[in-house]
Design goal:
Helices cover 23% and strands 42% of the residues. By secondary structure, it is α+β, with helices and mostly antiparallel strands.
């Protein structure tokens, strides 16, 4: 399913996102993240040792709220599920691309485990402030 054009615009700008995942016991866990998108998916890049990654491998349902950096009362909440995980060199290249958008430089922090691209199919959205 093609993503909403405004959601793509928000997710490919310098806007941060709140990614909410569900732990094994059902408790929600929210993480502030860089975000990206292609025509069909929201995209998060993370490492496999992180709790958010462990959560999505147990339960693929997620909520991603992309917040307008210029006006934080304007945001788009997207609910959906993880449909693909990309490992390897593509994930490493992607974090550098996203880092350049947010910081102007390649990703600098040390990579502790393995970078992965998490692709999220969006089932529904809610807009605020539009």
């Amino acid at each position: 399913m093609t993503l909403d054009p405004t959601l793509v615009e928000f997710a490919t700008a310098q806007n941060f996102a709140a990614l909410t995942t569900l732990a094994a016991d059902g408790q929600p866990s929210t993480h502030m993240m860089w975000v990206d998108a292609d025509d069909d998916h929201l995209i998060i890049n993370t490492e496999i040792h992180r709790q958010k990654f462990k959560n999505i491998t147990g339960d693929p349902r997620v909520c991603v709220t992309v917040i307008d950096a210029g006006s934080p009362y304007r945001y788009i909440e997207a609910r959906g599920r993880v449909v693909e995980i990309v490992h390897g060199d593509a994930a490493r290249r992607h974090i550098d691309e996203v880092s350049r958008r947010y910081t102007g430089a390649d990703y600098a922090p040390p990579i502790t485990s393995e970078r992965v691209i998490v692709k999220i199919a969006v089932d529904r959205i809610h807009r605020n402030g539009f």
